[in-house]
Amino acid sequence: MKITIVSIIFFITPFVSSFLEPARPYFQRTPQTSRCRSKFSMLDTSSFKNGLTLEIDGAPVKIVEFLHVKPGKGAAFVRSKLKNLITGNTVEKTFRAGESVIAAQIEKSEGQFTYSADDSYFFMDMATFEEDCIPADFLGNTVQWLQAGSEVGILKWNGKVIDVSVPKTLILEVVETDPGVKGNTVQGGNKPAKLSTGAVINVPLFIEVGEKIKVDTEEKKYLSRAESGW
User: Fold this and answer.
1) Is it the case that residue 168 has pLDDT exceeding 70?
2) In terms of C-beta distances under 8 Å and separation of at least 24 residues, what long-range contacts does 47-50 make, across chains too?
């Protein structure tokens, strides 16, 4: 009988000890939390330069302008102009000299427009061959420069597409325009022309349907006839 009681006590002791141990606080910092925090790249105002991307108030921004100021009295500071890479809005913000900020983890890649369906546009990453689906309203006026096979630049922040851009200049075909008139020169006036991507721009009167022209996508204007070999 004594052996049985001893055996029972030996068996239940570990469970009793475990029950009596103080519980670890639920929000206690763990090594995993520290690793999560370390993924952010920190820098300070001494590293500022135009074009640098930061994460401010939970959004990616690009430094457009900045100025280090050392007043006669008081602490030095940095005055900056920042462009929000999601909304496109520009704001001014002042930082203390030496203040730490988070460097935004922006990924840049090359993509290719493949097709559109139901007001969505699909792009293939040229490096990974993964596909991104982007709503037409997000792309805005960019869609007027897209046709199957168009190459684009893609920016991602935290894995989310925040910008799709086309090259500043493109070679496109004229698909609709009034007939050209003999004798007209570049200075002879302009007429509207519809391009293969759907964009409509003004072109010289001598340009005809089927011609390929060089256009400025930012200014939405005709530059020249395409050189042979394009």
Assistant:
1) yes
2) 48/78, 48/80
